[in-house]
Fold Large ribosomal subunit protein uL4c.
Amino acid sequence: MTVNKQLSYDVRDSHGTTDLNKSMLISFRVSDSAPKYLIHKSIVIQDRNRRQGTASCKTRSEVRGGGRKPWKQKGTGQARSGSSNSPLWNGGGVTFGPKPRLYTKKINIRERQLALSTAFYHSMHKVVVVENSFNSISTPKTKNFISILEKIIPRESNAKSLVIVHENNNNLSLSIRNIPNVQLLYANTVNLRDLLVAKHILITEKALTHISQFNE
């Protein structure tokens, strides 16, 4: 079961000050019956789909050599052995080792979007909305961006911050990529894990509107 819930966000400028005359009222379609189950399911499928599944070990039949019996069956005092490819031997085959396989699993688009919308609604306490002009950085300068960022959200050593913008800006991307624990995402590439792990979420007005339109 889904319900529509509304949230009001104050909009800040690049100096971190709140415009008293400007706010956003956003409506989210949220899972009301089992939000934890839906979010957990989406996270598990996202992690499964990221796996390469290329790990591979050789069985005793695939290991090179081992055709000769190492020693005779009786009379040596040793335990009997038929091949050096045995899993008991160093350099032998692996028993029940991994083989290349597909871990991918399908999830319905509407279900994935509902999980993302639900998670974003429940992350409202860590969301800061900024003006669209925030995405219009003219020069790629990391030092300048850090000073802007510190005015808007508190900088913590191990806290991950997520910056979500509505469109690609190469200058903004170059300014952010060397800052530890700060990640840049676009509104159409937001994923559930980054959303939940982040302690602070900085998002532009247009990006917030785009995310709120999921499941409409």
About this structure: The chain has a mean pLDDT of 87. The CA atoms of residues 30 and 117 lie 6 Å apart. The longest strand covers residues 18-31.
